[in-house]
Amino acid sequence: MSTISQLITNFLEYLEIEKGRSEATLKNYDFYLRRFSSWAKNPSPNKINADVVRKYRLWLNRYENPKSNQQLNPKTQNYHLIALRSFLKYLARQDIESLAPEKIELAQQEMREVDFLDTDDLQHLLDAPLESDSRDIIKLRDKAILELLFSTGLRVSELTNLNRESINLKKDEFTIRGKGKKLRIVFLSDTAKQAIKNYLENRQDIEPALFVAHDRAKKSKNREEQKEHNITPRSIQRIVEKYSKQAGITKEITPHTLRHTFATDLLSNGADIRAVQSMLGHKNITTTQIYTHVTNKQLKDVHKAFHGKTIKN
Q1: Is 179 known to be catalytic?
Q2: Residue 272 carries which DSSP code?
Q3: Which residue among the candidates 179, 197, 203, 229 is catalytic per the annotation?
Q4: pLDDT for position 112
Q5: Computed from CA positions of residues 35, 38, 44, 46, in that sequence, does the dihedral angle turn out positive or negative?
Q6: Is 291 in the active site?
Q7: Is 155 an annotated catalytic residue?
Q8: Cα separation of 234 and 239, whole Å?
Q9: Is 219 considered catalytic here?
Q10: Which of 57, 141, 143, 259 is catalytic?
Q11: Model confidence band, residue 168 (pLDDT cutoffs 50, 70, 90)
């Protein structure tokens, strides 16, 4: 029988080839599984049982990072267990005897808070690029980026991978390849379409990327050889941070805040949660359900405000 180290390698290759997992996911799973293997002293699969996992969970809960002197939070502990459970599912598919994956239960954790923008802050943010003192092409690019993030709920990695040919501005929708290389349809608002059109019409390069870093172009004596760099996820983060400050928004805003705002706005306006799940590219409906807690609270606040007014009247 193969060693657990070899089986982990086989599992990671399976995730890469068959499941199309990202490089970041593979790196994390490799770390979590090698940590378990090292802790358990490289056990054979049939030696992984409920008692071993129980002791491992205790170790994770008590582990303290020697550099930061901090313990692992429940979310990080769960990441370790999710990786182990996925590995056990792989072993079961390979008919390798080991612990049944459903025997591993995740630690309970607090409901994740969802941060989103209210209508006024959102509008101030979307207006900020055109009111900045940046060069015109950068104003148009940044306006298009913010409008596209809110209009579609795209992840930053999905946005930076878009090419010009990805989007047909004559249509209100286009297809992207998201996590796990899964295809999904996203929809463009009229303002997002117009912002992208304005930006592309003012581009003078021939780069295929939808968004490029104009402020870092490689200069050449031959104008046609000047090359623009694709914009990076970190650059998108900086853009959002820059305009949130310019818009006078005091709380921390990230590109994911616009994704949260997109989902919250849809549900607040009556969208079906399954439709929102599809548009966000969530694998599990439970991931999307975090937004229902936000919208339910909003409805409760509206009811309280209305009820209070009727009492006073």
Answers
A1: yes
A2: -
A3: 179
A4: 60
A5: negative
A6: yes
A7: yes
A8: 9
A9: no
A10: 259
A11: confident
Token digits of residue 262: 């997109």
Whether the predicted pLDDT of 311 surpasses 50: no
pLDDT at 257: 92
Q: So what's the pLDDT on residue 90?
A: 97
Domains of the chain: 4-103 (1.10.150.130), 119-302 (1.10.443.10)
User: What pLDDT does 296 receive?
Assistant: 59
What's residue 53's pLDDT? 96
CA dist list (Å): 134 to 99, 125, 214, 222: 58, 15, 11, 25
Q: Give the closest residue to 145 by CA, choosing from 226, 219, 242, 227.
A: 242
Q: One of 80, 85, 143, 155 is an active-site residue; which one?
A: 155
CA atoms of 138 and 133, how far apart (whole Å)? 10
Give dist(CA 163, CA 32) in Å, integer. Answer: 34
Q: Cβ contacts of residue 238 below 8 Å, gap of 6+?
A: none
Question: For 228-272, how does the pLDDT look when each residue is reduced to its tens digit (9 = 90+)?
Answer: 678 999 999 999 999 999 999 988 899 999 999 998 888 888 888
Tell me if residue 282 is catalytic: yes
Burial classification of residue 87, based on how many CB atoms lie within 10 Å of its CB (0-12 exposed, 13-18 middle, 19 or more buried): buried
Summarize pLDDT for 59-107 with one digit per residue, the tens: 999 999 888 889 998 889 999 999 999 999 999 999 999 999 999 988 7
Residue 215 has pLDDT above 80, yes or no: no
Instruction: Give me 149's structure tokens.
Output: 């993030």
- Both ends of the chain: CA-CA distance in Å? 78
Query: Which amino acid belongs to residue 192?
Result: A
